[in-house]
Amino acid sequence: MATGSFAIEGGGPPRPPPPVARGVVGWVRRNLLANPFDAVVTVLLGLAIAWLVPRAFAWAVVDAVWYTPDGSACRAAAGACWAIIAEKHRLILFGTYPYGEQWRGAAVIALFVGLIGLSAIDRIPLRLRLAAWAAASVAILVLMLGGLFGLQPVGTHLWGGLPLTIVIFVATVAGGMPLAVLLALGRQSELPAIRAVSVGIVEVVRGLPLIAVLFVASLIFPLFVPPELSVDKLVRAIIGMIIFFGAYAAEIVRGGLQAIPAGQHEAARALGLGYHPRMRLVVLPQALALVVPALLNDIIRAFKNTTFVAILGLFDVLGAAKVALEDPVWVRYAPEVYIFIFLLYLLFCLAFSRRGMAIERRLAGRRR
Amino acid sequence: MPPATRRPAFWRTAGFRATLYQVLVIALLVGAVAWMTETARQAMHARGIASGFDFLLDRAGFAIGHAFFVFTPQDTYLRAFVVGLGNSLVVAAAGLVTATVMGVALGLSRLSGNWLLSRAAGLYVELFRNTPQLVQIVFWYALFTLLPGPRQAWNLLDLAFVSNRGLLMPWPAQSGVFGLALLLLVPGVFLARAFLRLADRRRRAGRPLRGTALLAAVVLLAPSAVGWLALGAPTGWSVPALRGFNFVGGLGLSPEFLALYFGLSFYIAAFVAEIVRAGILSVGRGQVEAAQAIGLGRADLYRKIVFPQAMRVVVPPLAAQYISLVKNSSLGVAIGYPELFSVTNTVLTLSGHTIEAIAIMALVYLVLALAIGALADIVNRAVRIRER
Questions:
Q1: Structural domain includes residue A68
Q2: Mind telling me how many Å the CA of A137 is from chain B's nearest CA?
Q3: CB-CB: which of B18, B21, B116 is closest to A46?
Q4: Range of the domain at A41
Q5: Is there a domain that residue A248 lies in?
Q6: End-of-domain residue from the set A42, A62, A82
Q7: Nearest to B319 by CA among B385, B271, B261
Q8: Residues 6+ apart with CB under 8 A from B338
Q9: Which of B33, B37, B44, B138 to mutate against chain A (most A CBs within 10 Å)?
Q10: Do A42 and B135 lie within an 8 Å CB cutoff?
Q11: Interface ipTM
């Protein structure tokens, strides 16, 4: 032992942990009452929850009306009127699609949900998953349009509800991604004219509200092309969606391109690869893999943004809900309908965002 | 083949191809624009539609109700645009402030050690982030229209009233004076900052000032107080009261304004919360430990160590959210709040000048987005890491 030390030789026996750190009481002390401020917050929040939750439960479940064909029971009830969902769910989910053909819309929804599930299975090779999406896109189009395999043709002006939302969403991402890659590469290009055009498109579109881009696509576009080339309302809306999504996703892809070290470019060049194979085989796969989580954020936004077409007069879920609420019997129960739509979107968006988090964790693990 | 002795044909050189691609892109672009313009010109000529911006000075012939600026059918289209922009800016400014305050509070709450608080904040963020903003706005509007009428309005101490006509609250009778006092807070902030620096210098010199916080507050409020006193120190309030079927006096916020304001600020607050959380988590654990080791208090730890470093991560995405909030104020069109987009929609329907109206609107939104972007750039430059 060094001279001049005051340490007790051998030390004392190990002491037990403080009693308050263990068990339920310990957990409460640590997580709810760690200091006076926490205690006050806990009490206030606890009171708010104790006030709110029983009332919300009573409104949504206990006093709610689940079924009444003419709305009479709803007028008498103190709680929510879920009967409007029971009454109008076909209209909200499928819009103005011909009643007898709505199984096709249901099939589109099932296909879409199945694909989301399939995409989450990492064991299936990416190529196969992408091929499944491509095949399903064609299937969705055939199911919606009809005219093939003995299916009765249905014009796009009759499309509506969740299948319409899915069509717009899938088309937006499928069309927007290539545009995004083109714009991102254009912005990184060494050719000044191409760079200027790309920068101009991206900045202008990103500076405008989506609804303005949709208006330009649906109101101005037909003025500028001869009537023979004028496409229908749905296609114009999708074009607007694609351009908007492309401009935002382009900035994300650009971030990925900037993250690729110069050595990768130089090595590819040293191998004698020209611009196109260099980008396609070396740079883009790495850049896109890097930005998948960020892209998923944009994809979630694209899914939520499909509701904007309701302002253009298309009958997506929101547009169809507005039609359902024009019925004077049910007009009072708008909050119930919108809560139903919230849950619908919440389900899909949470699925997407959980997926993004999983990918992010995997990427972080790989880099370590 | 002899290696690299013969020069490649000129159409195979990189320089030629670069020029070719660019000429092609430009030609395609110019060609498309020229062709489309010509088509539009012919179509409009055939239909006898006049073009140009002269219509801006014509009588608009429509009214705008329930908003912050007076607009009558006698006013011009130009004034309609200005009024619409004003309404957009009011709702966007209110939304920006609310979204920021709520977002910071929610972001800090999510990181709190209090289990209940962090879970509640997490639930809020997930709920508001994963549902469409437009549905949120329409939902609030539907809720407000179901409130009782003015005669059965919810009454808060006989001062404020909530009904299906919106929210009514007391408001300074001479609001111009109070507005000026609010504006004078800006020099107050600069004075207070200068004072705090002085106090800091004295503290370091070993002669600390007593009651620094109180004095700083006085310095902060002094210009406003002087301005208010100089203009006669008005204290009169306009309090809403029920007369017959409706209210008079006070400040009225229409259900349309409230629904759009809730929809904009509650939605963006969820995103701001995530940005703030990521920013704070980006500050190294060691920084916090080092600050605690030198005995910095909790307030100083956040004010001097954590926030300045978190700002670098926070500012760029925050600016993007602000721009998104301002742009999405255009969703007022869905519930009839007369903001810029909604007014543009009315103008182009009534005047028939679709292209001109949309061009004006697009230009205004672009300028707004660029202005916020430029401001964010200035802030970003002020907070970035200065490496030697």
A1: no
A2: 24
A3: B116
A4: 27-62
A5: yes
A6: A62
A7: B271
A8: B64, B65, B66, B67, B71, B83, B84, B87, B332
A9: B138
A10: no
A11: 0.88
